[in-house]
Amino acid sequence: MKQFEFKIVNVGSPMGYQHTTKKMSLSEVLNELGQEGWSVAGVIPSGGEFGRQSDTDIILQREVVASMVCTECDMVADHCTCEQ
């Protein structure tokens, strides 16, 4: 069975996103994350007052490969509680 991990990227401004130490456009950020295996799974408007949207959450997913999964508990290694 395929397993996926998810990441949420909050985009506070349509003009750019602060990623690491430099300001990048959203397309640059998504291209960089795409090179790491992430793909967009969904987009959710968030924040704002009185019904106004102030920013957007982008939901990313990538398939977890076998080398990233604990052989004892079948969880992604980063979330595994087994003593290895």
Notes on the structure:
The protein is mainly beta and 84 residues long. The chain has one domain. Helices cover 12% and strands 37% of the residues. The protein contains 1 helix and 5 strands. The chain has one helix spanning 26-35, and strands at residues 4-11, 17-19, 22-24, 39-46, 55-63. The strands form 2 sheets. The chain has a 3-stranded antiparallel beta sheet, covered by helices on one side. It has a two-stranded antiparallel ribbon with strand order 2-3. The longest helix has 10 residues, at 26-35. The mean pLDDT is 76.
Keywords for this structure?
84 residues, mainly beta, 3-stranded antiparallel sheet, two-stranded antiparallel sheet, 1 helix
Instruction: Give the rounded overall mean pLDDT.
Output: 76
The shape, in one word, is elongated
Helix content: 10-25%
User: How many alpha or pi helices?
Assistant: 1
Strand composition percent: 35-45%
How many angstroms does the end-to-end distance come to? 23 Å
Class by alpha and beta content: mainly beta
Layout of helices and strands, plus pairs?
Blueprint: E1 4-11, E2 17-19, E3 22-24, H1 26-35, E4 39-46, E5 55-63
Antiparallel strand pairs: 1-5, 2-3, 4-5
Short recap of the structure:
The chain is mostly beta strands.
